[in-house]
Each structure stands twice: as C-alpha cells, then as structure tokens.
Amino acid sequence: MSFADELRATALALSAPGKGILAADESTGTIGKRLASIGVENAIENRVALRELLFSAPGFEKYVSGVILFDETLRSTGKSGTSFAEMLRSRGVTPGIKVDAGTRALDASPNETFTQGLDGLAERCEEYYAMGARFAKWRAVLTIDEAKGLPSALALAENANALARYASACQSRGLVPIVEPEILMDGAHGIEVCGAVTRRVLDAVFSALRLHGVQLDGMILKPNMVTPGASAKTSANVDAEVARATVAALCDTVPPSVPGILFLSGGQSEEEATERLRLMNTTQKADRAPWTLSFSYGRALQASCLKAWGGKSENVSAAQAAFLDRCKSNSEASIRR
Predict the structure, then answer these.
(1) Of 1, 19, 114, 230, which has the fewest CB atoms closer than 10 Å, so is most exposed?
(2) Among 272, 242, 244, 246, which residue's Cα sits nearest to residue 261?
(3) Do the beta carbons of residue 174 and residue 218 sit within 8 Å?
C-alpha cells in the first residue's frame, strides 16, 4: 500500500497558511519540571488536566493545524471519556506523536549526542496510525562549540542518518515525519557561526533523506532559527538579524518540494519567537521562499498559560485565554505579507 497521496495531503494541511503546530509532547520528566514551576505535583491526573485545558480551548483550531502528543497523552481520555486523538480530530486538528526515545552521548564524542528509538519504530508507527495519529516527530540535538570543533562530522552523520531512517519508517506506515534537527542556543558564538552550522546540518540532513528515499513533499521540517549563542553580545536589532539570517540559510539549503518549515522556539521567549517569525514573513527574501514559514512551539505557546492556570480549576478560562492569545499572535506572525 502506498501512502504517497495521504502523506502529501497531511503535510499540506499541517502547513496551512496562518496555522502552526502545538508541541504538547513533553515526556513525563519534562512536563514534571513545567508543573513544578507552578507548584503542581507531577501526577497523571494533573498531566491530563493540562492537556485537556489546551485541547478544549475554544477556537484554538483556527490557529493550530496539529498537536504533537506524548505516548501517554495519545492513550489518555478527557473528562467526557473521549480520547484526546478523537477530541482533536473532531475539531479538525491533526493528532501527531513523538516517537524518539531521547538522546544519549556518542561514545566517540561524549560532548555530543545521538537520538535513540529506531528499534521497533515501524511497528510503533503502525500502532500509532491505528490510534489516529497522522504525523510523528523525532528530535536530533546538535551543539556549537568552536573551540572543540563542534558539531563534529560524526555527530552530523549520525543524527542526519537517524533522522532519515526515522522519516522513511514513518512514511512507510502512513505518518508524516516532522524532521527536527535542533542546534542548541548554548554558547557565545555569533549569528554568522550559527548560520554556517545550520547550513551544514541541513545539507547533511537532506542528503540523508534523499539517500533513504524519503518523500520530501510528505514531510515537515522543524529547524532552529539562526540565532547568536545565548551568552553572546547582541545588537538592538537582533530580531531582524535573526529573521534575515534564518530565511537566507533556508533558501540556500531546503528543497522547494518541502511544504512547510515550522520552527521550534528553542529557548527563546514567547515574544522573541513570535516577533522573529513575523519578521521572517516580511523579509524581502521571504517573497521567494516556496514553503510556509510557521511555528511548532511548546513553551512559546504554553508558558503564560501555565502561569495563569496554576493547577486550579477556577483558573482554566484565564489559562485558555492566555493560550489562545499566544496562538493568535503566532498565527498572525506566520502570514506572508
């Protein structure tokens, strides 16, 4: 059975102009840290309550095309007894699933990582498809350290190949792969260094995707923005510089057949992630960018919402209002002008 047409249709739907993806795929440990920040216990009932708060927000489907879920969340139900996957589908929002198993250190380069989860991946994808998921996500993590020559050729090759194997396995089971090569913001490097590394990484990734026969119009790219290191000195005009540098790097490396580039927020504040996306869609080079430039944010959509909620049922409406405000702002930022 060929999924080519379905993959293409799903990728286009996820890349619809004015919409983006909510990354609600935090692992149990990661969401525990988010809950701890508002004084809430990391119990399954609290994890489910937070996800239901997000997925039931009135009108969020106007701004969100898909939601990435964690395994536990895909298997969970809301208060009505309806699965979260069905709840999303009933609102015209496509459910997705995180399929990687986290990172571990490379033996030959212990300051770098590779992503686990390829064993049994095709079978898991088949199960997730049967449960209603129609796309998947796999995150690779790369680090810039000029003094140590990072990212190394080994880390680039290992992570690009794993992303390609993941993407091929997903497509063979009907899931659109979100390909996420994240270059961390850690460090004091300048924006030019990040731009050069981003080009190297994306060149390696797309070479591997082609080698593994991945259908490029049936995938989504989720890259980092081209930013200076978190501890670098920046100019007052850094948001515009990030927008220009990011679009330039993408125009140099990403094939036009890819329907959507949906950015990760990667340590940026809510306001930075939104403003930089808005500027990308207003740069001169954006006129020749053939793909949708939009968002696939986690913290940059949820931070204000979490604070407003505080784990209290009486705050759900206020928390949903904060979430919708972030969704709307990023929707507007993703529209090409």
Answers:
(1) 1
(2) 246
(3) no
Q: What angle is formed at CA 3 by the lines to CA 26 and CA 67, rounded to 5 degrees? A: 20
Element (H, E) at 263: strand 260-263
Each residue's pLDDT tens digit, 195-211: 999 999 999 999 999 99
Structure tokens at 327: 């969704």
CA atoms within 13 A on the CB side of 180: 27
Residues with a catalytic annotation lie at: 180, 222
Q: Dig out the tokens for 85 from the structure.
A: 């996957």
Helices (H), the chain: 4-14, 28-36, 44-55, 71-74, 84-89, 121-130, 153-172, 191-211, 238-253, 270-280, 299-309, 316-333
DSSP 213: T
The pair of three-digit structure tokens given for residue 261, joined into one six-digit string: 């580039």
pLDDT in tens, 40-98: 999 999 999 999 999 999 999 999 999 999 999 999 999 999 999 999 999 999 999 99
Residues 6+ positions from 99 with CB-CB distance below 8 Å? 117, 121, 124, 125, 128, 136, 137, 138, 166, 170
Give, as one character, the DSSP assignment of residue 150. B
The span from the CA of 336 to the CA of 243, in Å, is: 13
| Alpha-carbon span 72 to 93, nearest angstrom | 19
CA distance 75 to 86: 11
Contact partners, residue 100, CB within 8 Å, separation at least 6: 115, 116, 117, 137, 138, 139, 166
| pTM exceeds 0.90, yes or no | yes
Cβ neighbour number for residue 55 with a 10 Å cutoff: 23
CB 278 within 8 A of CB 239: no
CATH hierarchy code of domain 4-333: 3.20.20.70
